[in-house]
Amino acid sequence: WTEGTLLDAENSLTELAALAETAGSQVLEGLIQRRNRPDPATYIGRGKVDDLGSLVLSAGADTVICDGELSPSQLRNLEQRTKVKVVDRTALILDIFAQHAKSKEGRAQVELAQLEYLLPRLRGWGETLSRQTGGSGRGGGAGGGVGVRGPGETKLETDRRRIRHRISRLRREIKAMRTVRETKRARRTRNGVPAVAIAGYTNAGKSSLLNRLTGAGVLVENALFATLDPTTRRSTTSDGRVYTLSDTVGFVRHLPHQIVEAFRSTLEEVAEADLVVHVVDGAHPDPEEQVRAVREVLGEVGADRLPELLVVNKTDAADEETLLRLKRLWPEAIFVSAHRGRGIDDLRDAIERRLPRPAVEVRVVLP
Ligand code: GDP
């Protein structure tokens, strides 16, 4: 590794720690290993596993989180050697997404991604810790379990089959929900209702802002909107034009491919919005990096050509110096606090100014 990649590794580890805290963990210690490529058996290499083992003991940790994707056998080997639960970056992100998914579709999408992740790792989970014989370290390819035959296998096969069934069922359900959503969206497009997508890094405060902007719990009975997904709400400009605001999936650096696949339709929907409101956590140690990561994902789904309104959130928790720096860096950005309600009117105005003006105005008369 060059110094640059070491810095990358440190940043990535800092971010991993922040993600772990988001998921509700308390982070005790960090460990960086320099290698040209991961060790096939243990990812970090035999010597480093011993260091890790001592670190786990001295810190009294109950979990090891690894910044990278572990193969099923690497995960198993590490658990066996450290005697604690080992989680990789993908599993951690999936966990956070599971906590954050609010809509029925979102929850189904996360479950699908989790099951696809779990399927090849099925044997490793739980079993490593209880099976102390230590014989499975050899020849453990993808799926593992070579040479481990016995009554357990039947149960494993049943579990795998059940998971496969659940996966195909989830796929069908997601497809059906997608069709319904597309039909509704097509109707709104025909009716000239502009769409605003709220994008941003996981935990930046997207849902909090959505609530602030639309007034949580305000359900308006209107044919066009009554059956909206909970993550899409309607709002009205000061001159009575209606638009929709949708919360999108949270973005994370190196988003696991299972997530991108499961959420593809939701992500692609962002590309059809009229405006992207990009929420950044101003109290985060590295907001610029978050912005870069989000723009990268937006680019992947073809949403990088849309007009973007940058919103720096959590100004109540950010320090003055950072805020000044960010103001210089992003002079066009709107600074808000979803918690305190600060800057929300400015944000509403800014959104309004950027909405496309329909040739024919649609007015919805509220009761
Ligand atoms: P999302 O993952 O982007 O949808 O983020 P959430 O809206 O779920 O918020 C993530 C966390 O940040 C929650 O714990 C919120 O309470 C917190 N949060 C959101 N907005 C603010 C804010 O303006 N100030 C502070 N201090 N915390 C906020």
TrEMBL record:
Keywords: Cytoplasm, GTP-binding, Magnesium, Metal-binding, Nucleotide-binding. Residues 129-153 are annotated as: Disordered. GTP binds at residues 200-207, 225-229, 247-250, 313-316, 337-339. Its cofactor is Mg(2+). Its main location: cytoplasm. It is found in: Cytoplasm. Residues 134-150 have a biased composition (Gly residues). The keyword Glycosyltransferase does not apply. The keyword Nucleotide-binding applies. Coiled coil: none annotated. Mg(2+) binds at residues 207, 227. GO terms for molecular function: GTP binding; GTPase activity; metal ion binding; ribosome binding. GO terms for cellular component: cytoplasm. Residues 194-359 form the Hflx-type G domain. Monomer. Associates with the 50S ribosomal subunit. Belongs to the TRAFAC class OBG-HflX-like GTPase superfamily. HflX GTPase family. GTPase that associates with the 50S ribosomal subunit and may have a role during protein synthesis or ribosome biogenesis. This is GTPase HflX. It comes from Micromonospora phaseoli. The lineage of its organism: Bacteria, Bacillati, Actinomycetota, Actinomycetes, Micromonosporales. The gene is hflX. The chain holds residues 62 to 428 of 482 of the full protein.
